[in-house]
Amino acid sequence: MLFIVFAFSILSCNKLDKNLGTVSARIVAAKEGQIEHKKDHEIIVGSFLGDERRCYYGENPPSSLNLIWKCWLGGAKSHMIYNLSGSNMRYGAGWTGQPLLFKEKEKLFLLQGSFDYNLRKIDASNGNVEWKYSFDDAIKGTGTLYLNKNSESEESRFIVLQGSRQSARSDYNFRGISVISGEELFRMKVERTKSYSRDVDGSALIVGDTAYIGLENGIFKVFNPGNKNVVENGKFYEPEVYKEINLFSQKDIARIGGNIITESSPAYLDGRIYISSGSGNVYGYNIAKVEIDWEYFIGSDLNGSAVVTEDSCLLIPVEKQFITGNGGLLKLDPRKKPEDALVWYFPVGNLKMLSWDGGVIGSASINDKYKSPNTKSLAAFSGIDGYLYVVDYKSSDGTTNSFDGKTTVDKPELIFKYKTGSSISSPILFKDKLISCGYGGIYLFEFDDENNFTLIEKKNYYFEATQVVYDGKVFIASKDGWLYCFGD
After folding, report:
1. Which pLDDT belongs to residue 32?
2. Phi-psi category of 43—alpha, beta or left, where left has phi over 0 and alpha has psi -120 to 50?
């Protein structure tokens, strides 16, 4: 039997397709049991929302939010980022900002990017910093961990792929860094396009030995994440790029100008890579054909990442910008033609905040990896309107207006709604726990098999980042400058 080796799915493997091992020469396929990784590194949460389907958030969530330790991340001025006071000084970590989680010789570590330009390797037991690597501007997005089995050196065997905001000093704001030493291995260019931005907020997806990422310049890049075939360019090395595709068209530029920004992280399903773009499109890149062969148009600025459900559908967060209807959460079935793909839509309220007009900015979470066989399939998401929502994503409960403001479509059953304050963070769901973070603080909920939710504890902090959990602890960076560890 053949199977695809996903670089970051050690603890969170899905039931992978049995017949995809031959669809691309770039996918590593092997007989089960042939591929082995050294025991000294174990990836737990190795990319934004954990795995190739963006639906794994760690194990054993806490039952309380006691402060265990905190680590100072600091702050710095960032190009074209401004806070409410008009200053471009920012502290801590922002969106998406989820820590990566792994073990090194049975010891638990975090990797956390920050507005102070630094990526840190942090001892998860006490918050002590092992090393830090400095970029040329603020780090917002979450990195991706890669165990490179073909590495010829120990230092380059375990790599983190991390991007940052654009800088006036360098066009190369995507880097490959040794997790072991914190030394730079390579850097990749983010070219100038018609886009307003050249930041990197998305997390790379690694399938076999190939990496896929959408950049804020609107380009989807397919590249080699290892360092065996890197080429020297001045004083640094560049990875081999296999493919570059625009996630926008001239029609998109005419409609929305330079807002063709891709901020989301790609997800994998049935031989395709799916990614949402600021151009208003959800794209499906066919690995075997080496091209985009599926495209669904929404028209909104799409920020959040596509999440793949166990019924092989996509959950797409929709911002209010550029559309007539409300923003919300959309379920698509990519096995169908785009014109028939819409399953349901759940609109949220409109509320203007900062640069947003409403909708859902962060990604949804689902309980697929954690739920009991007979419990409902839940999806949780937060709106700019100030509410946390939980729906049964496999249900249908009446109809509503779609994102275009006029088409009548199905909507899912609303299970739970709670006023937490506006949020662009992604809540995370477990078997009986839900943790939600946002501008109003961190909320810890518990729920039973009948989906009765109870607020256990709340702490007042200011969050844009997404949290991760392990062994009764939750780790999350705040915009006050600190990385926090709360737990039992």
Report:
1. 29
2. beta
What single-letter DSSP state applies at residue 459?
E
> What share of residues in the chain are helix, strand, coil (percent, to 5)?
0, 45, 55
CA proximity to 288, closest of 271, 305, 274:
271
* Alpha-helical segments (H) within 64-181: none
Domains of the chain: 2-487 (2.130.10.10)
- The answer to whether 175 touches 162, Cβ cutoff 8 Å, is yes
Q: How many C-alpha atoms does 126 have within 13 Å on its Cβ side?
A: 4
Q: Tell me which DSSP letter residue 412 carries.
A: P
91 Cβ neighbours under 8 A, 6+ residues apart: 73, 74, 75, 115, 116, 479, 480, 481
Inter-residue contact 43 to 147 (CB < 8 Å): yes
Residue type, 335: R
SS3 call for 191: coil
Bridge partners of 315? Answer: 307, 331
The closest of 243, 275, 247 to 259, measured between CA atoms, is 247
- Cα 66 to Cα 194: distance, rounded to the nearest angstrom: 47
CA distance 165 to 485: 26
* CA atoms of 265 and 144, how far apart (whole Å): 10
pLDDT tens track for 266-295: 999 999 999 999 999 999 999 999 999 999
Query: Tens of pLDDT along 28-39?
Result: 332 223 233 456
Q: How many residues does the chain have?
A: 488
Buried/exposed code over 345-368 (b: 16+ C-beta within 10 A; e: otherwise): bbbbebbeeeebbbbbbbbbbbbb
Helical spans, DSSP H, in 115-218? none
Nearest to 459 by CA among 451, 480, 450: 480
What is the tens place of the pLDDT at every residue in 123-175? Answer: 999 999 999 999 999 999 999 999 998 888 888 999 999 999 998 788 999 99
For 340, phi then psi, to 5°, come to: -115, 10
Strand 174-178 relative to strand 89-91, pairing: unpaired
Q: What is the largest CA-CA distance in the chain?
A: 61
Pick from 386, 270, 387, 244: nearest CA to 334 = 270
Q: Which helix (H) or strand (E) holds 253?
A: helix 250-256
Nearest to 12 by CA among 282, 267, 200: 267
